[in-house]
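User: Hi! I'm working on a homework problem where we have to compare a predicted structure to a textbook description. Could you give me the structure for the chain below?
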Amino acid sequence: PSVDEAGRSGLKRDYFLQEILQRIQPGGTLIDIGCGWGAFLLNARQRGFQVQGLEITRKAAGYAQTQLGIPVGTTQFLDTEFAPESSRVITMLHVLEHLPQPKEALEKVFRTLEPGGLFCGIVPNFDSYCSQALGERWYWLDPNYHYVHYTPDTLKRHLESAGFIVERVYTHTGDYGRDTVTREIAQRESVLTPAELSQRLTTL
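Assistant: Happy to help. Predicted structure tokens:
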């Protein structure tokens, strides 16, 4: 994409950045692990963070570096040196489930954050309605690339084990979209009251 297109991309994930800004002031370093071509980091830089990323796909990393001017390394997170307590925010957006050593990665994130720093991310919800309904056809199962799957409870436990204080864990329809989820429910449930349908959609 052009720089203008990058600035309009949904991958800027503005809703996600707004949540970060509700909890922490910009100005320090924000590291995005698995940053892709840098749309989210571009947004964070525009909001006042000093940004850097890691991305093992070299073409995507090259775009972020050359077109957006964002420093992006191409090494694995556990192989990359970060000074202790050097980052205000670390993010992983659909990345943690790809890491073969998530325990070690979370412990390193904790060491890299400054006191009062923030770690946040997005992972597929293994306890979601779509996961349970679709079984092996669940899109996010992805056995070739997803090494670990999390429910809200297991994610919270893993974070706490690494030293974090968990402020919030919540679920969302995410990349499936509400229409796709509603259609899947309608195919499987013969009769649902509006209240029952609403309840299903809050646990996806």
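For your comparison, note the following. The first strand starts at residue 29 and ends at 33. Residues 102-112 form the longest helix (11 residues). Good luck with the assignment!
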